[in-house]
Amino acid sequence: GRLVVLSGEAGAGKTALSEAFASRLDEDLTVLRSACEDLSIPDPLGPLYDLAREAQWEPPRAIEDRELHRLPLFSEALEVFEAKGPCLLVIEDLHWADDATLDFVRFLGRRIANTHILLLITARTDRSEGQ
After folding, report:
1. Which of 42, 81, 84, 95 is deepest in the core (most CB within 10 A)?
2. Mean pLDDT in order along the chain per 10 residues (131 residues)
C-alpha cells in the first residue's frame, strides 16, 4: 500500500495525469474514483460515498448522524476496498474536502501499508477558484 499526492495549480493537468496513469494499469486491478466538490457546505464524506458506489458497497446512510462512530465505518471501508484485490483509489480535489473526508484520508494513509491499495490524491497548491 502506498499514498501518492499529485499537487499543482488549477489546470496543471493533475486529473489528466491520474487518468493516464489509471488507464495504463493492469486490467485485473480495480480502479475506484471519487472527488471532493466545491460546495458552500460540503456533504460529509462525499468521496467515501463515491468510492462505496463504485465498489458496490452500501455504507450506513447515517454517516451524517453524530452518533455514528467514524472509525468502525472507516475500518469497514478499508476491508471492502482491500477485498477488491489490488486496488487504486482516486480522490480528486482534496483541497475542497470536508473535515470528515480529511479524517478518512488520514485513516487510510496510516493503514494501507500492508495492503495492495494505492491511494492517489489530487489537490491544488494555489488558492484560485474553478476554471
Report:
1. 81
2. 95 93 90 94 88 91 62 93 95 94 96 96 77 42
